[in-house]
Predict the structure.
Amino acid sequence: MGIKTLLSALSTVLLLVNALPAHAASLKAKPPTTTEIAQVREHQRAIVLFQASASIDGKRVSAAREYDGNKLLRFYIASLDALDAPKQVFPASLSAAAADEGWRYLVLSPGLYYLLVLPPGVEQNPPATAYDAGSARYGRLTQYEFTPGRGGFYSPELTSFVFRNPPPDFRPLQGFWFQVPADAEVVYLGSLSVACKGGRGLFGSLLDSCGEVDASDDQRAASELAASSLPGLSVQTLALVPLGARRPGVVVPGPGRLPITARAVSQVAAAFTGAELTPWATLHGTGQAFALYNLLAIGGELLQQASGERQADKRAADLQPCMERLSAAFAGLDLAAELSSALASAPEGASHRLTASLPIVRLRESGPQQLGLELALDVRVETVEGGRLDYHGLLLYSPGLPARNPHTARSPLYERRVPERPAPRPTDEWCGPDGAALLAGQLSAGLKHLAAQVVKDLQ
């Protein structure tokens, strides 16, 4: 291990350590800046307003005064237009009074977004909220058991516990999608709440379990808050929608004969597994010996992860000529025609239009010298008049996914895998003379499965 490389790894550790207190930050009152308000008035950005609260044994947690991060909600957001990495955000409040009521806001550019809200109980052991690498979903544990880790391991990367095989009481959290229209000034997403039960651990109070994240609508309160804190800005309500669902209360016609617009076709890429989520070899204890051991162990872990990523990048680079040949054959795909055929059995509708794209077309490592097709279909159904988005689905047809950090671009957190799985094939077949025909056949099969899920979503 070179001294420069070690120092680089250790500097990363220090950054992680310095970032840890942010997870326990309470809700701050911080109005938008003059510059942000000007951008909102020019429709470059919008103020996204929502209310969120947690309660423990019937008593609401005051996010403005609570500094125990285990009792606070966590928020992650990602652009579904850019398919970027879900990042933890710390929304501020418009005023101290609004903070007491759990009101929060973000300033975002127009577009389509993913929001994940994690209930309390992430930072305790045993956890009440954790991540399942198999389903690529965070989830809540509905039955308290005084079992360290509940069969999982703690990941410093995610600052949460990770399961490879979750316990039976694990319930996945799907997250939400929401739209920020191009002409919006203030967008109200609704009000969220989660109720938790308290428990007791070996060293103090823990959370027993938390319920579902419930969504409600208080447009009057949102309008009153905007009028007092954001005078002159108009408010429109576009409530959060559960991932993969259509907007509630809206009749969306079947997609069969909707006008279909297909966006640019992606290039075929190769995806090899790099560093996976594993336990870190750190020890619990106090004193300089423990601190030095843990610092070196974490530095070694970071170096091992970096090495795994470099090896995966090199294997993908070695297959780049093959991927370019397959991309050339794939470029002729008429996605609109393929989808029209796959959706032909659905009824006709004229009030909406459908836009589709294939943002992910990859051959993913799936066993020794085996690659399986990974195909993502992005489908959006919007009103012809006004362009209001009433359905969004980012559906994935793929082999089994590795246990990787989900806070990366093209995250599995906001993808929904259809039940069917493509059969992996040897690398030599994909890169041989019949590779283009193999890709075409698997693409056609994959699109049929993905289209069938769209029809189910809209029924």
About this structure: The longest strand covers residues 186-201. The longest helix spans residues 288-318. The chain has nine helices and 24 strands. The two ends are 58 Å apart (CA to CA).
